[in-house]
Every structure is written in structure tokens, then in C-alpha cells.
């Protein structure tokens, strides 16, 4: 079976350091060869109300698992890290893990332009040119 190359983003603005650290630990158990960019502090993007700053990082994964299996793991990790749906007026994101790139497919094109994604990709020496 061919290895799939995946780029994910992690973000939190509510007990962020604790949640990002826990998410990275859990992801490392599921994907032992995962490499993370250093966490960086960013202003909130796309919040309807005033939001606290976020801590974000990226992870690059090589796995033989399929796309849906990987998505399920990402959702499980979010739940284990306290992912809750707060009302938008509370502007709390406990943890958000997004699948950005699956092999050559860009899954979230708008996110790819965000500065923290660009910085993380540089830190991981990744280009979208594959």
C-alpha cells in the first residue's frame, strides 16, 4: 500500500497551550512519524466577535491509512482534547484540527493563504508544488 502524505493544522484559543500539547501527544500515538512545526501565537481570523489570540501549528504525516480513517482519528483527538461547540458569541475554540492537504489535493484552499499556515510550511520545509 502506498504511503499518504498529509498536512494538518492545529489551533486553539482556550487553554491553548495545554490543548495543543495534548493534541500533539495523541496525534504522535496514532502517527508515530508525525513532525510538527513550532507553535506560534496569532491573532484570531474569521471570528464574528472579539476573540482571544490563537496558538497554531502544523503537522506533516505519512501513513498508509485512508482519508476517512485519518479524518476519524483527527475528530477523536479533537474530542479527547475537549472539543466543544461553544456559542459563537463566546468565541472559544478549545481545539480545531483541520486536514489541509491530502497527497496532492488541497482540502482547504482558503486556509493555505493564512500567514500561520505559510510560516508553518516554511518551518517544515513543505511546498504545495509537491
Provide structural commentary.
It contains 3 helices and 6 strands. By secondary structure, the chain is of the alpha+beta class. The protein has one domain (4-124): 7,8-Dihydro-6-hydroxymethylpterin-pyrophosphokinase HPPK (Alpha-Beta Plaits, 2-Layer Sandwich). Strands 1, 2, 3, 4, 5 and 6 form a 6-stranded antiparallel β-sheet that branches. Helix 1 runs antiparallel to helix 2 (67-80). It is globular and about 45 Å long. The model has no long low-confidence stretch (mean pLDDT 90).
Write the layout of secondary structure elements.
Elements: E1 4-12, H1 16-30, E2 35-36, E3 40-42, E4 54-63, H2 67-80, E5 96-102, E6 105-106, H3 115-123
Helix pairs in contact: 1-2
Termini distance? 20 Å
Portion in helices: 25-40%
Structural class: alpha+beta
Number of helical segments?
3
What is the molecular shape?
Answer: globular
DSSP summary, beta strand count? 6
Query: In what range is the share of β-strand residues?
Result: 25-35%
- SSE series: EHEEEHEEH
CATH topology: Alpha-Beta Plaits
Radius of gyration: 14 Å
CATH homologous superfamily identity? 7,8-Dihydro-6-hydroxymethylpterin-pyrophosphokinase HPPK
Question: Average pLDDT across residues?
Answer: 90
Tally of discrete structural domains: 1
CATH architecture, by name, is 2-Layer Sandwich
The main sheet comes to: 6 strands, antiparallel
Low-confidence stretches: none
Give the C-level CATH assignment.
Alpha Beta
